[in-house]
Amino acid sequence: MIKFSGRCFSVLTLSLPLLLLGCGGGSGGGQGGGLSGLFGFAGSSGSPGASGAGQGGDSQGEGEGDAGDAGGAEEEGTSSVAATTALVSRLGKPARVLIGLGSGSPIDEMKSQDIHPDIMDTYLVGVGAGAWPTWNSPEGAYLTYTAQAIRDYGAIPMYTLYQMTANGEGNLGGINDAAFMNKYWAQARLMYQLIANLDGPVLVNLEPDFWGFVASQATDRDATKMPAVVSNQPECAGLPNSAAGLGQCLVQMGRRIAPKALVGFPPAFWSGTAAEIGAQMRAVGAHKADFIVAQTSDRDAGCREVDPMPDECKGRSGPFYWDETNMTSPNFHESQRQISEYRTALGNGLPILWWQTPMGVPSDTPGGTDWHYRDNRVDYMLRNTQEYGDIHTFAIVFSPGGSFQTSIATDGGQFARLSGQYFARGGAALK
Question: What is the reported pTM?
């Protein structure tokens, strides 16, 4: 996921009130990263940054967990067909696998290449001073303005709520601190209130990577055993004061304030087997959500093949480039099988949204250069989209996951060409 440097936000003077937008990646500037990338604005430097340094990592508990009056799909079977189709229908889009773009994909660049995504994703980060509600005046207007810009371009807004890194990625000390959590919940409530005032549905991706850190730090990997401040919120009175209750509250608060908010949880596949993670995520109420967020990867494969390696690509062992013939590991069918096994373990037959899929261009030569690293996810997934439709995918969202990753501005027109061909074919059928 995109790494923000924490104090790297720019102030824009528009005809509207001031708009604060992120300037991009953790290792410095460059093309393709940051909140501002979605709208193509350029501003001056020197304003306060968002609380929290990072935008997660690439991710691919026991206890039932009751999310109150939360919705969710029906159990597996014919109802899962209805759930996938019904979700796309609620979004007002054609009955096919939807295609989206995220941060690092400016609308002006989309216009220049005649790219028209179904979904556009952006982050809501930080807690307290410098957090996303402060990026505009009045408080929280960033969400309203960006949603309007996205809708005006014909897409569905998607927001990735990424507040839990405000104390540092993987630092969970704040979840049992009332002062921190009261600010956290106030911002989550504000998000839902603003969504409730919009004209149409909005997708919300709830706290990527946080759930993996919960599993890795909780006793017995059980979110019910990790204390958190939850039940003091009026929408969540009666829910357990635990990390499990925290997840349940995010869903329940959304249901009660913003029925138009369609929410999804991203499992972190570094916290156990698909079956184990399914149990972990049921504890936090993920089976009561509207969809599953499947994290493809957050970096171009080539960025992790070069020497020296950019800081934003360090920390993983290879190989990284997926085998499009699906004969050797890693490959696309393995990834599809993993999320399918998780979906079965989670239960409720939820549709799948693939998120933050890297945008590099295929190459037989490992590596690449900044903003031009090789990868084959766009090529494979837009040529073989029906494979994803067949496993109950309703959307695939592509975006650079760091400051130096390939984007629509640097991919030589790959995304424009392949997405255009996909739409011209009529898209992949839902299942």
Answer: 0.85
CA distances from residue 215 to 211, 224, 244, 345, 352 in whole angstroms, order as listed = 6, 10, 10, 16, 22
Correct CATH for 9-60+62-312+323-424 of 3.20.20.80, 2.40.50.140, 3.40.350.10, 2.30.30.230: 3.20.20.80
* Pairwise CA distance, residues 141 & 188, whole Å: 14
- Determine how many CB atoms are found less than 10 A away from the CB of residue 294: 28
Encoded tokens for 67: 């999310």
Strand order in the sheet with 19-22: 19-22, 9-12, 44-47
Q: Using omega within 30 degrees of 0 as the cis cutoff, is the peptide bond preceding 319 cis?
A: yes
For the chain, 431 residues long, give each residue's pLDDT as a single digit of tens: 433 322 222 222 222 222 222 223 332 223 233 333 344 332 222 222 333 333 444 444 333 333 334 345 544 445 555 789 999 999 999 999 999 999 889 999 999 999 999 999 999 999 999 999 999 999 999 999 999 999 999 999 999 999 999 999 999 999 999 999 999 999 999 999 999 999 999 999 999 999 999 999 999 999 999 999 999 999 999 999 999 999 999 999 999 999 999 999 999 998 789 999 999 999 999 999 999 999 998 899 999 999 999 999 998 888 999 999 999 999 999 999 999 999 999 999 999 999 999 999 999 999 999 999 999 999 999 999 999 999 999 999 999 989 999 999 999 999 999 999 999 999 999 99
Cβ atoms 371, 404 nearer than 8 A = yes
Q: Taking a C-beta distance cutoff of 8 angstroms, is the pair 286, 268 a contact?
A: no
